[in-house]
Amino acid sequence: MFFNITLGVHKANEENSKVIYREAVRSVTIKNGKFLMIRTIKGDFKFPGGGPRNGESLEEALIREVREETGFIIERVKRRIGMVTERKPDKYVKDAMFEMISHYYLCDISENYGAQELDDYEKALDFRPHWVDIDDAIENNENLLRGNNDINPWVQRETAVLYKMRDLLGRLAADL
Questions:
Q1: For the chain, what is the mean pLDDT?
Q2: Domain boundaries, the chain
Q3: At what angle do helices 134-147 and 155-168 cross, to 10 degrees?
Q4: What angle do CA 125, 80, 76 make, to 5 degrees?
Q5: Which residues 6+ apart lie within 8 Å of 128 measured at CB?
Q6: Does 15 score more than 70 pLDDT?
């Protein structure tokens, strides 16, 4: 694993505080020097992925989520390259902390793709697969973080991962 990032509150377990956990998977796919990301109506870039359903392994969830969000099929999950832990007060449960752990996997995808199968919130955000240069994605997300209060909650996390990926590109060259 190449990175392990913690965002938000660094101590999840406060006394008398419930912790609500969520686990997610994210695909890092690079072709011809560009990353496969999701662009939303708010202008941000995020890595495709989401949470596992009941009984689904992390790898199964990753394959399903990438297909649903992008239309692309993962041919091979190469390896887990990083993890991000986000902790913050839960917005739905009083006196509770929300902790989400996102696992990032380096993946190969097929050349062909089909239709997206988006959830309602993804449709509302107009999720679109987009091949983007890493520096362009970082600059774009950084501009949103600096000047926009109406941003998606994942922009900080994905921007932190983009910086790590830019630093790792040389080390991962053999895997790409």
A1: 92
A2: 3-175
A3: 150
A4: 80
A5: 38, 39, 40
A6: no
Q: At residue 121, what is the residue type?
A: Y
The helix or strand, by DSSP H or E, that contains position 109, with its residue range, turns out to be strand 96-113
Six token digits for residue 140: 């774009």
Average the pLDDT over 158-171 and give the result. Answer: 92
Find tokens 């997610």 and name the residue.
24
Q: Which pLDDT tens digit goes with each residue over 131-163?
A: 999 999 999 999 999 987 789 999 999 999 999
The residue type at 129:
P
* Separation CA 108–CA 110 (nearest Å): 7
Q: Report pLDDT for 11.
A: 64
Do 43 and 138 form a contact (C-beta atoms < 8 A)? Answer: no
Name the CATH topology of 3-175. Nucleoside Triphosphate Pyrophosphohydrolase (3.90.79)
Under 8 Å between Cβ of 130 and 39 = yes
Rounded distance, CA 56 to CA 64, Å? Answer: 10
13: tokens are 């377990």
Q: Which two tokens stand for residue 125?
A: 């955000």
Q: What are phi and psi of 162, to 5 degrees?
A: -60, -40
